């Protein structure tokens, strides 16, 4: 049976979205996936980053842990899971820049039929997590992904997260995701892997 490759491409400034990404990776790996965790890079100068205490240091630490996502990563993947903190009710510009760079694959139809899912974090309750998640599905649809939301397909969704994707609230203090948040994220990793595996098996059988 062919391996299922899962790319988790995220942007995180304080580590909250990173924690969700790692939990999704755990769930995907538990379902047999080969996972690549990638962090989108900053678009602003070091001088701008210095205006927010800790931003530069946190970015350097995360960049040391994760490579930047590439088009080659997306082509390799059977599933793409995108994660971001909310920026005014939408995804961060850092993650959007990565998505915008996938135009070469879009033209060739290289992403059609792969599984796509999303997750996010917000600083405040009602801070835009659902609007962010829903808006992230728009580019996935344009790129040809089969959209895989979390739904209420697991008991964990009745305690945390959203039916669109896993999420966390940091209460403006960079508080880490709760145990319930992480449980939803791990389920999301399992669900995306299972759907991606089924899609890949169908595509291979069709091509045979």
Structure write-up:
This is Flavoprotein WrbA. Belongs to the WrbA family. GO terms for molecular function: FMN binding; NAD(P)H dehydrogenase (quinone) activity. Pfam families: FMN_red. InterPro entries: Flavodoxin/NO_synth (IPR008254), Flavoprotein-like_sf (IPR029039), Flavoprotein_WrbA-like (IPR010089), FMN_Rdtase-like_dom (IPR005025). By secondary structure, this protein is α/β, with parallel strands linked by helices. It has a single domain, classed as 3-Layer(aba) Sandwich (Rossmann fold), CATH 3.40.50.360. 45% of the residues lie in helices and 16% in strands. It is built from 8 helices and 6 strands, in the order βαβαααβααβαββα. Strands 1, 2, 3, 4, 5 and 6 form a 6-stranded parallel sheet that branches. α1 (16-30) crosses α8. The longest helix has 29 residues, at 179-207. The radius of gyration is 16 Å and the shape is globular. It starts with a strand and ends with a helix.
Structural class, from helix and strand content? alpha/beta
For the termini, the CA-CA separation is: 14 Å
CATH class: Alpha Beta
**Averaged pLDDT:** 96
**Morphology:** globular
Helix content: 40-55%
Count of all domains: 1
Number of strands: 6
Beta-strand content bin = 15-25%
Specify the CATH architecture. Answer: 3-Layer(aba) Sandwich
What's the total helix number? 8
CATH topology, which one? Rossmann fold
Residue ranges: pLDDT <50 for 5 or more in a row?
A: none
The string of secondary-structure elements, in order, is: EHEHHHEHHEHEEH
